[in-house]
């Protein structure tokens, strides 16, 4: 993974992967790409390293495939292609909310129910509309990790109170040690991941699911308590390099570099941090290690994300490709290359070449509290993008609650009102 576009503009997680600027670029992949038959077209959110690894996966497919990297906003890409009557055969989406949206619009072809058996209970339910399966998972993201430097943090915290105590102590030490936390708050999705992990501890599953379905219940205690815990941590003196104002100008990839360069001791984010850390690690410094997101009130969360394949406009070629992608052997090239986690139960944790991936894969199977990324499940504008939806609301919350002499209760009131209003607007409610 490489550095995203410069400047202070926010970017999506996919934006930070676009090293080569290849949005919209088409290319053939697959063993038979020289065939005269018509290629199956698949639109993906991946680029750079991820796109290269996906192309390696497709080399095992016996028919020609044309891969289109759709850029940061695959929703806008697919809507434009639909209006033009040129939809791809397959799309790979990182947001289950889009699967629901497209199924409601009758843009998708149902998939065989037997494909649901490849995944743990609950995963395929996110890809159903009115009980019908419309998507199949092809990649997972483990979103409950802290990455830290063992030379800076010798005793990783296991509870929220221990994390808060550690951040407080490191913050009080000032310039004599690295800052405790790096956070890419310029990218709103980073802040949603923080909230989702705390909320997964405090909210019962039915409440978390109610929020993901768009119900305006953001003013209720689980959300307010989660925001309060975040406010307590984020407002600790010295928590961030240069203060919270600078954190709001820091993009995700830069937050990782702040740890590898020893300016900060810890950064919270998913397993894909690993691909950033390696190129920017200073010579002679140890590799960043990981610990799970700390438990809150005795509950340790596991928030996951993922990418799912859907078939558009009744394409038989698309259905055949999706059948190939859900096979447990298909992603073997990417598994061996690293930087990949499979949601497929047929992929044993033993197949991963490194200890970290084996551990994460096993923890996904064993998790007692597992929730799927909430913002990715939301529909409409509420799901978040640069400057809109839940991304912007949480950036406003971060800015307000870390301000000097902030009225924490008042900020939480304003934030929950904004979240409820956004939920109503996305759901067409008054």
From TrEMBL:
Which top-level group of life is the source organism from?
Bacteria
| Keywords linked to the UniProt accession | Transport
Family, according to the entry, reads as follows:
Belongs to the bacterial solute-binding protein 1 family.
This protein's name = ABC transporter substrate-binding protein
